Amino acid sequence: MQKRNALKLIAVSALSISASAILGACSGKKTEFRGVDITGADYARDIPLTDHNGQKRSLQDFRGKVVVVFFGYTQCPDVCPTSMQELAEVKQMLGKDGDRLQGIFVTVDPERDTPEVLKAYMANFDPSFLALSGTPEQIAAVAKDFKIYFKKVDGKTPTSYTMDHSAGSYVYDMAGRLRVYNRYGSGAQALGADVRALLQEAG
Fold this sequence. Notes:
Blueprint (H helix, E strand, L loop, with lengths): L1 H26 L8 E2 L12 E2 L14 E7 L6 H15 L7 E7 L7 H9 L6 E4 L2 H10 L4 E4 L8 E4 L2 E5 L5 E6 L4 H15 L1
Parallel strand pairs: 3-4, 4-5
Antiparallel strand pairs: 1-9, 2-5, 3-8, 6-7, 8-9
Helix pairs in contact: 2-5
């Protein structure tokens, strides 16, 4: 009698495991990120600014690519060049898939960051990366939508000021949806893993 009950218990357990496996396979695995998963966020919706070539831009322009957006300024001593260099490293790490990554730099210092300055700055990292600017009002509106803080800090001369600003990268999938926030200091490996995950997700 005990043997029969034991066999019955094993059979029920086996059926439960099979059902779980089938349900797991059907439900689809959620993409895991190294950065902060912000899928479904209702902010950072667009970047209606002008690039360093004089072209008006929108996130829709980059459908079919993973887009990484970073806010900063060209005279930033460390945070901005480090972040852009890491993004350039990610593109190299991706190999042939690097063409499916679009780097976007949004200046918070339009007074000094002219189109010529921005173009030269992007060339230091990758010629395919774009820098965006606009009027102070346009930049303030976009920064607000992205929850970016920035403030001018006076220097010894009128032109030697610095800009305090939030540091971190916003990552969009190939359909133009905001998916990940990558904190400053996470490193190229973490950002690269998230970009790769989004490329694989798209197939």
